[in-house]
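Lab meeting, item 3. Inverse folding demo.
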């Protein structure tokens, strides 16, 4: 990310990201600049020891911060990733158990319905994770991102808990 590019708010999370053309995801509602930052964060996590220890928390947070527009794919994605945040934030699941919960939620056996995204923007976004200079800062920002994203969806937490219970997730 260069300082020469003008910045715009991502239409998903609200982070000020480069105003650039580029690829986006087919149903995750992120601007191209934000989607590029996300890719860089994941690449760093996979390629640098200590940075990718629990990328599922980033993936879950990013997906629900960028819910897109109502479609069967976006609805399923948001439901599954909210369940992923729920099992970590409220049930204390570790990464392996949380991944299994997300897989169960995303397998198509349960149809979710659209949850209106929170009207407020997020205090911690992929931009904060991208700026993390070392593994400790990365981990701290990632944990706060997950906590604040789950909290932002508080109006829908009872529904997410009910979906998790229907799927047999304690």
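The presenter then showed the designed sequence:
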């Amino acid at each position: 990310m260069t300082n020469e590019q003008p910045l715009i708010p991502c239409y998903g999370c609200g982070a000020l990201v480069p105003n650039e053309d580029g690829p986006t995801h087919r149903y995750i509602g992120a601007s191209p600049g934000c989607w590029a930052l996300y890719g860089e964060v994941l690449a760093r996590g996979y390629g640098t020891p200590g940075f990718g220890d629990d990328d599922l928390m980033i993936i879950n947070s990013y997906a629900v911060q960028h819910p897109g527009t109502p479609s069967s794919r976006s609805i399923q994605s948001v439901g599954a990733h909210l369940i992923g945040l729920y099992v970590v934030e409220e049930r204390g699941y570790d990464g392996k158990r949380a991944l299994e919960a997300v897989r169960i939620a995303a397998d198509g056996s349960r149809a979710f319905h659209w949850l209106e995204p929170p009207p407020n923007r997020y205090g911690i976004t992929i931009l904060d994770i991208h700026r993390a200079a070392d593994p400790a800062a990365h981990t701290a920002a990632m944990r706060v991102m997950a906590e604040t994203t789950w909290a932002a969806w508080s109006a829908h937490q009872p529904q997410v808990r009910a979906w998790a219970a229907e799927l047999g997730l304690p």
